[in-house]
Amino acid sequence: MKRLSHLACTLLSFFCFTALIEARERVSFNEGWRFLNEEAEEAQSSSFDDSQWRTLNLPHDWAIEGPFDVKYNARSGGLPFHGTGWYRKTFEVPAELKNSKVAVEFDGAMYNAHVWINDHFLGARPFGYIGFEYDLTPYLNFGSRNVIAVKLAPEDLSSRWYPGAGLYRNTWLNITTPVRVPHWGTFVTTPTISDELAEVRVRTEILSEGKSPVALQLHTTILDPEGKAVSETSLPLHLLPGETRTYSPTLEVPQPQRWDVTNPVLYTAVTRITDGKLELDRYETPFGIRTVEYRAGEGLILNGRHVRINGVCMHHDLGALGAAVNMRATERQLEIMQAMGVNSIRTAHNPPSPEVLEVCDRLGLLVQVEAFDCWQMAKIPNGYNKFFDAWHERDLRDMIRRDRNHPSVIMWSIGNEILEQGKKDGWKLARHLHRICKDEDPTRLTSAGFNYYPASVKNGLAAEVDIPGLNYKPLAYAEVTAQYPDWHLLASETSSCTSTRGVYHLPIEKYKTHPSLHVTSYDLIGPSWAYPPDIEFRFLAETPSVLGEYIWTGFDYLGEPTPYGGRDNSTNGYWNDDWPARSSSFGAVDLCGFPKDRFFLYQSQWTDVKYKPMVHLLPHWNWEGMEGRTIPVYVYTNAPEAELFLNGKSLGRKKKGADTTALKVAFNNWDEGDYNSPYRLSWDVPYQAGELKTIAYLDGKAVAEKAFQTAGSPAKLALSPDRSVIAADGSDLSFVTIRVLDQNGNFCPLANVQVNFRVDGPGELIAVDNGDSASTESFQAPTRKTFNGLALAVIRSKKGEAGAISLTATASNLTPIHVEIQSK
Ligand code: GAL
């Protein structure tokens, strides 16, 4: 048999393959789609005329294109994500493939997908976060024109956050032979692991759709992280037409290298089906060799070593890029989190894109993959509860089958704050979902995030999962761990502190909302159920057996602009008060990925001064008109002590723990009044313009310092790309930070200047942002106002066009600047 290969050529919206050369091909199906953002009658028909529709490439999120409007629910970002969207694509499949199997795979389609091929209805898939595949073979016209049509119908009031809309994840054509490993057909486990040997079991499904019985061979090879074959085995295969059989070859890997947060090495299981001479299928499964244990009273043990979860909850949007998946944007988010000291991600509250897990495997981040935000009981009028009965089992099984080979995944969450907690028999559903997880993956534990306490315990739901999670209940850890010493308790969602980057309101006081629609960054404000990070640090320190915490959230996300907005009953749940507040302030970094002060507070707890000493200082030092008035200054450091200087004069050294900072804490469930935080150092400083500086000390030696100057008026711009060389593949990105500086090069922390962008060369400006959670400027305009001195421009390469991309930024009265990015 020839091997199948392809040459994807996009000519008008046609897509064609040339000769066969590989046993299995996974071809991107992203290019050359037609799109219409409205209802269109008979648009599923192959003869429908779509020539007037817009042409685009996937992944695509139509809602991020805007415009922002108060009429779209601010709770989900104030963007037009609901309505109807049609995608159509005309493509050719060469006649040579007529004996092959061709399937289309969507990594996700937001929401209520209906799919047709050549007038034949393939099926519907409501849940927007799940991947799915349809076999196209019986309906394809080999050697001529085919039309695939997808209708999406996301509903209003269907999400508590910004869901995005469209074919927002990658799309593939999977071309195989009739005898093959079916979709997600392998499951790699490591029954025993020692320093000498790891046993690797590659459970493999084989499906035969040939016309006659087959007698073939199944070869399984393990490649080590360097790609060298370290173990191999072969088995005879006997299948009848239409039969699926499961084989479980077990191999031995000598001196296995462990996948760990500090050493994320991946092995690959290569499954090959041959008839003695020809290869009929070749299926690769990357996996890791690691032990994950949960020891009662001790916590999470990874490869024999205790690891506390320093985690973040993350929604799926990529800020100004919306929900449209992009590998580099995903990687950047996770790199930023890792720099904060994060070692784990909770995919709140839905299955993530495949890219998230691929990157977590590669970077060494542990993951809790979460399935649902609700079960049968509704949180919002058009939530997943509408589909739960019909779809939950399929969706949950598919999530696990898709993700269970990732070493990064350490537990499955069956739900977040599901309202069944309050029901006497809610445990029944919890047990049912837990059993589905065990059925698909007996190697990992199950979890759920409960916010009702003690109801979730009393009603028996907590006991139905292996890892009961408590959301926002630090004061209950001691009680629960004492009462249930065998439980593996998790702080599944914590803090929910809110802040806006670079904003400081004086005097420091707790307020519910502020006329600016921003939140002060002294890290003290949160909704009634929230706690400042410090309280969580303290109670986690007091109950070391708790596995660790997932803070709400790592990044700001679109939607849920708490503390702004509220329920408006007249519009059935729209959150439009306080418009244009339209995105969250919960993140440790803003929507652009620029760190807020809280980023450094977590970093001071989650990183080790011996490896990477750090110190951070707040607020900024531009308080014109406040001369002589007291400004509270906070220092966050992972060192034991720090000293503060104003214009060269020491304002004293302080020791963490001994010198505490009184925080006004007026959160629910907290009746101790002020909280003296041992996690922050503070000084009350009479304001005087000049240089504010801090030095952190370890064993009396200076190990880190940070300083800033009172800035003069804005005079120039600075551009810093996160990467100055990117791949010319039409998808790689460079994130360019724009900073406003004064004449002397000092950062201007209050500058809000309109910056215009121009891109020359083989690149495109695909998004701009500034992290302001109350801005309705378009994410796709070639201009953006800086917000507190910063803005972001995202540049994408053009496919196949190498060369220098130049970004020029101009602003009136400021010296223009440009920067070059090489696309290779
Ligand atoms: C939690 C919820 C999250 C988010 C958060 C905001 O209760 O699980 O999805 O809404 O509150 O504080």
Folded structure, characterized:
The chain is 11% helix and 36% strand. It is mainly β and 824 residues long. Strands 25-26-27-28-29-30-31-32 form an 8-stranded parallel barrel, surrounded by 4 helices. Strands 5-4-6-11-8-9 form a 6-stranded antiparallel β-sheet, with no helix packed on it. Strands 13, 14, 15, 18 and 19 form a 5-stranded antiparallel β-sheet that branches. Helix 3 runs parallel beside helix 4. The longest helix is centred in the middle third of the chain and has 19 residues. The site of beta-D-galactopyranose has 10 residues, from loops.
Give me a quick take on this structure.
Residues 628-704 form the DUF4982 domain. The chain has eight helices and 50 strands.
Characteristics of this structure?
eight-stranded parallel β-barrel, Invasin/intimin_cell_adhesion, Beta-gal/glucu_dom_sf, 50 strands, 5 domains, disordered N terminus, 36% strand, mainly beta, six-stranded antiparallel β-sheet, single chain, glycosidase, hydrolase activity, hydrolyzing O-glycosyl compounds, 824 residues, Immunoglobulin-like
